[in-house]
Amino acid sequence: MAAAMPRLGRADAERDAWPIWRERFVAPDGRVVDTGQHGISHSEGQGYGLILAQAFGDRETFDRIESWTRAHIANRQDALMSWKWDPAQAENIPDWHNATDGDLFRAWAHLRASLDSGWSTDPSVAAEIARDIVRLCLAPDPRVPGQPLLMPGAEAVHQPGRVLVNPSYYLLRAMRQLGAAYEAPELGHAADHGEALLSELAGTGFVPDWVAVTAEGFDKPEDHDFRSSYDALRIPLYLVWSGRGDHPAVGTILRMLMTATLPGHFAVSTDAEGQVLGQSNEAGFHAIAALAAGVVPQLSADSIATQPYYPATLQMLAYVAAREGRA
Length: 327
Fold this sequence. Notes:
Helix 2 (43-55) packs parallel to helix 4 (100-115), helix 4 crosses helix 6 and helix 8 packs antiparallel against helix 9. The protein has helices spanning 10-25, 43-55, 59-72, 100-115, 123-136, 172-181, 185-203, 234-241, 248-257, 283-292, 301-306, 309-324; strands spanning 41-42, 84-85, 138-141, 144-150, 158-159, 162-165, 211-214, 217-219, 227-228, 266-271, 276-280. By secondary structure, the protein is α+β, with helices and mostly antiparallel strands. The longest helix is centred in the middle third of the chain and has 19 residues, at 185-203.
């Protein structure tokens, strides 16, 4: 692992890559469009858009994304968002359940906008989301009941002896900053326990997209494939962003990426036995591998202009994470 990352050429990235990402994936009304999933929008994407707009100093786009979010998916009785909005359906919200990572990103974006950018935003947004994540999206670890696990959603199925977890939902930096800002120490405790959980998973040599935490240990999830794939790829991104590039889960995911058999590709999906299920040479996955290896990821207008939504977004986020992860 490299000792430190050099400063990045921010001006070029702002001038070239950010406007292209914005034009390709943010509709005029502020809807962030996932071109890889038939043009749907989701709470995760709205959160990513808010974070990127804030990180690149684009207040107008931040406000557009937030306005659409409030009008279309911030429609639950709590402060959380419905996770999916589908333009192809008459009822645009086919599933009103939330996804906790999208809510974390939206809350963190508002906190960053206020503290880091000096923008005047609704102060209740982040505070109420943080409150409801604590109230609705934490569950005791069956192995250590005094320690909280971050559930993937408020309505996620869980029992006293079994809790479903998505390890890639642990954005430790956001959880700790939100917990400190809004007197929600439970979020900080969940981040600390999540960091330990990720270490335990890395120790098994396999960090999956989804896992059940039971009183006896880790188990296969009942309603999800047991694989390390597109979700888990975000784990090194979030750990580096949180100043933990030395975390063992970073190395575990990097080793998985390097098992590809095609030249210039990375393994983007493997099963629990290490069999490669999917490979890609998209620049966004190169950026994740570079970040995990302690190298500054590349960012260019051409790569953002030619990739689908998800790898293009990963590349943008990896650039920001590299810029901020040593702060």
